[in-house]
Amino acid sequence: MTKLIHALKNQFNVSVIRDQFPALRQKIYGKNLVYFDNGATSQKPQVVIDAINRYYALENANIHRGVHFMSQRATSDFEAARIRIQKHLNARKSEEIIFTKGTTDSINLVAFSYGELLNKGDEIIISAMEHHGNIVPWQMLCARKGLVLKVIPINTNGEIIQEEYDKLLSNKTKLVSVIHISNTLGTVNPVKEMIKKAHAVGAKFLLDGAQSIQHMKIDVKDLDCDFYVFSGHKVFGPTGIGVLYGKEALLDAMPPYQGGGDMIEKVTFEKTTYNHLPHKFEAGTPHIAGGICLGTAFEFLSTIDLIESEAYERELAHYAEQVLETFEDLTIIGTAKNKTSVVSFNVKGLHPFDIGTLLDKQGIAVRTGHHCTQPLMDFYKIPGTVRASFAFYNTKEEVDFFAEALEKSINILR
Amino acid sequence: MEGNTDMTKIQHEIISDFMLFDDWMEKYEYIIDLGKELPLINEKYKTDEYIIEGCQSKVWLHAALINGKMDYSADSDAIITKGIIGLLIRVMNHQTPEEIASSDLFFISEIGLQEHLSPTRSNGLVGMVKKMKIEAIKSLNQ
Predict the structure, then answer these.
(1) pLDDT band at A65; cut points 50, 70, 90
(2) Which residue of B has its CA nearest to A386?
(3) Chain A CB within 8 Å of residue B51 CB
(4) What is the CATH architecture assignment of B2-140?
């Protein structure tokens, strides 16, 4: 790891980064893999794979309760991962980092628990470009508690209309929950300003970081969001683990989400008292390997200059757009001024599924369909898109190869 | 089981057709050509009543019993799905309900298209094959 840090620090070198990802070296249908489905999940660097192996081979033990060496080691590794994530996010305390199953689980936790503090007639605001994971939990909460869900409209470029947001905000607004970077459009939303506006009317702000944690430096103190949520598997870590960051006072005020072991202080049949943060929200044996190895993923991320990698990814996405714009009858969906890492498109008269299937047979992994954003597809009146989504290990050469394969696919389908 | 021999025979024909292709793109070109050629369904059946909604593509299926044989017509909004429908109809059309109800569509995996009929693919094809069989079973009980 130290060697790697020296090799990478202060210079962004794609080939050095690519070398860390064994999955990128394989052939699919006899073709070199081009992995452009990073919006769905990222590949894993060797250090994370090694950490997963090491955990199960040697370090496996349950945490927070064992008196023996292995349990204590696993506990301290798990808690060290929490601290690493706290530092990465620039959170005030490690107690503000709750391990969950992922973004969706984190949002459900907030919808249930923070939702318990809300009353009939209170309002929650989301945007028209949200992922189903940031729509449905709020709809369920609204049905349960008699709350009102309001949706900020977007313009055809795929940008949230700020004037409409201003109009929706009122003293009835209790929470605003918005995606940081759109998984379908690549739009980077102006969340810092939006958070300020929410706070001005006394509302809390949940920032869905599923697509931002891996693409930019996140500073929750600077953003001043009340909650920040993300999934481990999209940020080079394992599946099944994710994070809910929440401000301490707010998390303290919220009731527990699930009951069970680890989240209690004292249990009798008459009365149970709850554990302190963060354990109050982590009932049962957590995903120990996931937590520890997510820590390793952030250790890996600390070897990369995230300012440089963000610039590189923006340039790559911009290059892909320029290449795609040379195609006849191709429409790029999502043309926000501030966008990154995602290029969604449609070719006139062709179904995204057909294009995706033919790209697959040429070794190119893209996503087709509605990307779990059906209301957004309804807005654009399309059944879906083909989406290429990039990570910092992708290259312009891959984009060129993708363009050739796309041309071939279109010719066959026409 | 003369008819079943029929279905088996047609499936073997398709398998040997596909053996001519060297790579995946050629296979798909063939499927796509099938999809382009076939007029598969009467427009009046392209309604919600006949739809099998997949996550990726939509399929419309109409089934009828004509002179003791099943008559299928279907369509899709995606051309690859449509081409595969063409193959399925080639095998299952004008067979008796008994044969269809007990049929084994082994050609799909033989020609390497099993991914399109896996339950996770969600392109409407799994639902379509299921519905083709259910319609056959229904007409047995009429």
Answers:
(1) confident
(2) B56
(3) no
(4) Alpha-Beta Complex (3.90)
